[in-house]
Amino acid sequence: MHICAVKVRPALACIGEPGGGHRAQASGMGSAAGPLRVLVDMDGVLADFEGAVLRGFCSRFPGEPRVELAARKGFSVREQYRCLREDLGAKVASVYESPGFFLGLDPIPGALEAMQEMIHMQDTEVFICTSPLWKYEHCIVEKYKWVEKHLGPEFVERIILTRDKTVVSADLLFDDKDTIRGAELNPSWEHVLFTCCHNRHIQLQAPRRRLLSWADDWKAILESKRRQ
């Protein structure tokens, strides 16, 4: 596997880069300083994590109370199940920590097509920026295999795997997590919230932006950022 050098602040975990070393700038990379760099989260943005969790929980624990997708609130599915009953948190976690879970995720509608189009856009660099579980035995390898299966080897070399996305330098980050914190208090990227079942209720304050789905006008977001 080709391991590489996307420039980050000093505390980065692990990165994959396509063969050669891309320039990383601070904010404003999409201008004359260089190409627009776009980070795209994986779970909930490219791969349907939430739907798979619910199906897996219903199959494994059919008699237990569950949280339907329409009732999901908050990024942590484990915490919401724990609020139903203490032991349900561990039970739902056993679903997404099990072997084969991440590899079997369905693509989010329109995600694969958008990524293939984005990677061929002029003056644009796109990377998949994803965080592993704390219990990472299966998910890391399966994330790589999922990307290879659905997007091809070109995107395998564009995976950035890190627990702290704030240290990765880019212009845009599409992510379904509503609040992203880390070592860098002022990340270089603009966080565009990708709509998922657990964040639909959140009212964003300007100038924050939301992408409703991949059928929404993601190109307009890229172009507006490029003009800044």
Brief summary of the model shown:
This protein is an alpha/beta fold. Helices cover 29% and strands 13% of the residues.
Give a structural overview.
- This protein has helices at residues 49-60, 77-84, 88-96, 111-119, 139-151, 153-156, 218-227, and strands at 14-15, 36-40, 124-130, 159-161, 172-175, 190-194, 209-211.
- By secondary structure, the chain is an alpha/beta fold.
- Strands 1-4-3-2-5-6-7 form a seven-stranded mixed β-sheet, with helices on one face.
- Helix 1 (49-60) packs across helix 3 and helix 2 (77-84) runs antiparallel to helix 3.
- It is globular, with a radius of gyration of 18 Å.
- Mean pLDDT is 90; it is low at 1-31.
**How would you describe the shape?**
globular
**Sheet with the most strands, sense and barrel status:** 7 strands, mixed
Strand order of the largest sheet: 1-4-3-2-5-6-7
Beginning-to-end CA distance, first to last residue: 35 Å
Instruction: Give the averaged pLDDT, no decimals.
Output: 90
SSE pattern: EEHHHHEHHEEEEH
Radius of gyration: 18 Å
Percent range of helical residues: 25-40%
Helix and strand content put the structural class at alpha/beta
- Helices, by number, come to 7
Low-confidence stretches: 1-31
Sheet-strand content, in percent, reads: 5-15%
- Number of DSSP E strands: 7
